[in-house]
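Progress narrative, Year 2. Work on MBL fold metallo-hydrolase from Nibrella viscosa advanced from sequence curation to structure prediction during this period.
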Amino acid sequence: MKLSFWGAAQQVTGSMYLLELEDDYRILIDCGSDLERSNGQVATSTNQTGFFPFEASAINLVLLTHAHVDHSGNLPNLYREGYEGQILCTEPTYALTELLLRDAASLNQKRINELNASKKKRVKERQAKMQKDLYLDKQVREAMENVVPIAFNRKFRVNDSVDVTFIPAGHLLGAAHIVIGVYENGEKKRICFSGDIGRRNYPLLIDPAPVPPVDYLICESTYGNRLHENHQTPEEALADVIKRTCIDIPGRLIIPSFSVGRTQALLYTLNKLYSEHNFPTIKVFSDSPLALESTKVYLKNVRLLNQDARQFYDENETLFDFENFEYLESAKASKAVSNHSEPCIIISSSGMVQGGRVEHHVAANISNPYCTILMIGYCAEGTLGWRLLNGQSTLTIKGKEYPVNARVEKVDVFSGHGDRNDLIRFVQMQSSETLKRVFLVHGEFASMQAFKDTLAEVGYPQVEIPKKGQTYEL
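Result:
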């Protein structure tokens, strides 16, 4: 049995791992977009033979840990390249992935249309390449028609030699650790792919569940070299920022936020502040059609949320709707918010301030000293969010340069990733005597190296940091 690392190897995004069994059965675990190489946009191919470094038609099965595009974003391209099999994931992952991929396809179509309108030869050449590489709604439909939803914690037998189990991982609604059991040469081997490991006591989500004993562990390492900085609860951290930015002064708070997962955690926390803590009601706008659709998925899966959220829903018959809250569905309504004269909170995507309606809100307010931009998640290098966090004095948005007079703050209480202690706890569920090897993925190299050293200190010396394209015999 061979395991090859084709993504999220010594970097954070682009998760994609190929497991090849001795009987030539091939399983692809995750098929994500490389957001670092493409500055938050869907990556395009870099070779002449195809989009992937392997034959898509030779893959027998795809397993998906969760919906985020750095894990799911290239599934439509896999079908374009000839894959004809199924995708196994949980029911919420199926629903959220479809929303994210359709949104990406819509953006791809807009990019192609813009290039089509150009008469420049160089642009035309670029347009031809993009049409070859970027999937559209047709490819999304083909991928989603082949999804088979799998329940949590129920062993699913793929064939006589392979079974898979999806174990709750926290991090995002529907997210899973995937344990694969492989029978070869009279021996059973178990491999666990962590996906993204959630943190405990996160708004809405259940805590990561224990993983049974395995032989090999593929573990994310996003926070492998650090702890979460904020020790407040999400309600405390958000209340502090709102008080300083919208109550003590008549200001405006802009929160760039991913539409799937992060926005729901924010809205739920705001709802709790207003309903349980008598917090002054500030007008809140959620400016993302994708967030609205994602919220509907959360409401359909209340039974999979944590006990606190289920109890809140039972008592209030809502999770996300509260006084002075408004979804902005049209582009016209989105732009009109710039004329809102009272203090307000604007939650808009994307979380990296790269594409989406949030660019307009940042451009309209970046020079306003009474505005605060609150960053609440990871930003890939080169994105507008990354530039804000690195303290640039000016910012260029859609070709226009703006002085940065707004205040830029950051909190990590809404990060869906577990920190170093959470990652250690995840690995320590495995016996150091029986665990054969740990592979670190989904992290910056410095984070991986630090986490490897930490694991050695706590008794796990059998740690590898694979390079992209590296293959191991298991």
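The chain is about 30% helix and 20% strand. The longest strand covers residues 176-184.
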